[in-house]
Amino acid sequence: MTLTLPQLVPASYVDAHGTVRELDAATREVVSDLVVGRGVPASPVVCTPGEPAPALHGDLETLDGAPLGPVDGTAPEAGYYRLRQPDGTRRLVISAPARFPQPERGWGWAVQLYAARSRESWGIGEYRDLARIARSAQAAGAGSVLISPVHAAAPIVPQQSSPYSPSSRQWLQLLHIAVEDVPGAGDVDLTDLAERGRALNATRLIQRDVVWEIKRTALERIWAATRDRLPVEHDVWVASGGVDLQRFATWCVLAEQIGDAHWRAWPQEYRTPGGAVDFAAENADRVAFYCWAQWLADVQFDRACRAGATVVADVAVGFDSSSADAWVHQELVCFDFEVGCPPDRHNLEGQKWGLPAMSPTRLVEADLAPFIAMVRSALSHAGALRIDHVMQLWRLYWVPLGGHAAAGVYVNYPVDALLAILRLEAHRAGAWVVGEDMGTVADGVRETMAEQGMLGYRAALRLPVDQFPEAVMGASSTHDQATVAGTLTGSDMEDLRRIGKAADFTQLAGVRQELATAAGVDLTQPVGADEVARAVRAQYGRLSECAARVVLASLDDAGAVAERPNMPGTVTTWPNWCLSLPVPVEDLLESPLAREVAGILDARRAEDLAA
Questions:
Q1: Chain-centre distance of CA 110, in angstroms?
Q2: What is the pLDDT of residue 174?
Q3: What integer pLDDT is reported at residue 345 of this predicted model?
């Protein structure tokens, strides 16, 4: 089976209001040439182990090319294969269980990990802080902890603030490493760096550039003292990373030495991985340093994921155009476009996310290898996965660079294959999966998610909790939306007006009044800390009674934080992804309001156990 042009780049779509919108004809013509210009490859064969699969006729082999013999229309055991059909066509085969594993009914915390600093942190939330949160959550009866993405960033300044604009979705963020927990840290003097790092906790604004300089220096000291006596576990892990890890580490060294992650402006010979082989050999020690640093992050993240409640890892919708992933997979990327979303009632101007678009046809030609590696990496330790903007599996909205968000077009992706990969990797990891399905969602998406057992995502500040279906993860808001405190006090609307961001202020005022009514707060009187606490309790009281399978409480709400973590559509007018929690996370988790919220949500678990 091959996809036709209308299937890959449709001429219209149905917007969030149910209105059919014609897509920009000129943009569609350019995108069509990019996506289809080299031809459309045969789609992967998706099947269920042991079930009939009419397309499976020919010779089957492993991905390494080992022959497995002829197949006669019956799906093999779960895994990845290649099929060579009688006409010579070569197709990827994905044999996956029909449904995702399922979570138990329960509740959890949602946390921006960078913001969750403890007293021991060096200016930013760390993997050991995640372990503390997971232990505390489990002790309070929570079953899960949803975290912001921990994808890797470039090892240069300025550091990328957004966890949703990573340098790689396959590797981990080094800023979250707890330096004092690194093997060999006790063998060197880190006193000066520890003091500098902890001093950063005195200000609420996270200074990633300074954190990176301090932590990199500390890691270099430890590396110099221990690189000749690394444990065998390190050697095994680095070897298992193979070419992917070596390429990522090489890219890190190149970006560091050149001082710029924009690899398309590097010297010509370094603009492809193949051209950097000699560079990697000449800088073997520094390449090894970044491999070691990734091992440290992996070990600490694994420890955090095993500490208590199930950690739900968040997967970004893409990667930065000047990223390691873009450098490695540049043949698959269309750099003249960025992904985003068309205008809707929550974002009247639409959105552009600064992430380049990946061609679906080139991705199929690559046997979907980048997607498989990303999912496998995300589930190597975490017990569950949240897919940000789950529509990335079905389609992405491409906007020409420099163009208005309304001038984009939708491009469809091999959703059946991508879902099969997710189901296969989820079963291998014993993990459940959530798809963030808010905003403009195509017909049939939510039905397919429900049929396959992928949970949806709902936010109470967008949809009344009594309308939440059962098969979802429910929350008060997302990282892009107002907090309870920001809504009740009206400070969120003031922020929007101050920075000149377009919004439906009538709708926002209605949400504010509805929340105040539920909390018994008179908005004609001053709104202080007591009123905010009442609103937080009321909001999570309503969530505790909703049908959602898993309910999340935000640590921002437990800390009565008024500001949004991120203001979509802004770059410099809001401190996006840079605001820490107002108090050390260990104090916040033990605060009266956090304990009350935990008690309110844990009551639903107690009721289920009693039933």
A1: 13
A2: 98
A3: 66
Those residues whose C-beta lies under 8 Å from the C-beta of residue 435, and which sit 6 or more positions away, are 386, 387, 390, 393, 449, 454, 455, 456, 457
How far is it, in rounded angstroms, from Cα 355 to Cα 329? Answer: 14
> Which of 339, 443, 412 lies closest to 5 in space, CA to CA?
412
Torsion angle, alpha carbons of 70, 76, 79, 84, to 10: 20
**What average pLDDT does this structure show over 155-170?**
97
Reported as a single tens digit per residue, the pLDDT across 254-282 is 999 999 999 999 999 999 999 999 999 99
Tokens of 460: 């109470």
Instruction: Round to whole Å and give the CA distance between 238 and 218.
Output: 21
Q: Report the C-alpha gap between 147 and 137 in whole angstroms.
A: 13
In the prediction, which pLDDT does 606 show? 73
Q: Is pTM beyond 0.90 here? A: yes
Tokens 């927990």 — which residue?
Answer: 181
Query: Which of the four pLDDT bands, split at 50, 70 and 90, describes residue 1?
Result: very low
Spatial CA neighbour of 374 closest among 149, 566, 174: 149
What's the one-letter identity of residue 343?
A: P
297 versus 608: the higher-pLDDT residue is 297
Tokens for 377? 């990496």
**478-518 per-position pLDDT tens digit:** 999 999 999 999 999 999 999 999 888 999 999 999 999 99
Q: What is the DSSP secondary structure assignment for residue 460, as one 8-state letter? A: T
C-alpha atoms less than 13 angstroms from C-alpha of 510 in its C-beta half-sphere: 8
Pairing of strands 456-459, 550-554: unpaired
**Alpha-carbon gap, residue 219 to 200, rounded angstroms:** 18
Per-residue pLDDT at 300 exceeds 70: yes
Question: Is 16 within 8 Å of 347 (Cβ atoms)?
Answer: no
User: What does the alpha-carbon distance between residue 459 and residue 495 come to, in Å, rounded to a whole number?
Assistant: 21
pLDDT at 12 over 70: yes
What phi and psi values does residue 435 have, to the nearest 5 degrees? -115, 125
Which helix (H) or strand (E) segment is 310 a member of?
strand 310-315
Helix-helix angle 208-226:191-199, to 10 degrees? 160
Task: Please give the helix or strand (H or E) that residue 219 lies within, else none.
Answer: helix 208-226
- Which has more pLDDT, 172 or 35? 172
Distance CA 84, CA 64 (A): 14
How far apart, in whole angstroms, are the C-alpha atoms of residue 55 and residue 93? 10
- Average pLDDT of the residues in 591-602: 97
> What's phi and psi for 399, nearest 5 deg?
-120, 130
Instruction: Report the alpha-carbon distance of residue 115 to residue 139 in Å, rounded.
Output: 22
Distance CA 354, CA 347 (A): 16
Structure tokens at 142: 């929570």
Q: What backbone torsions phi and psi does residue 545 show, to the nearest 5 degrees? A: -100, 0
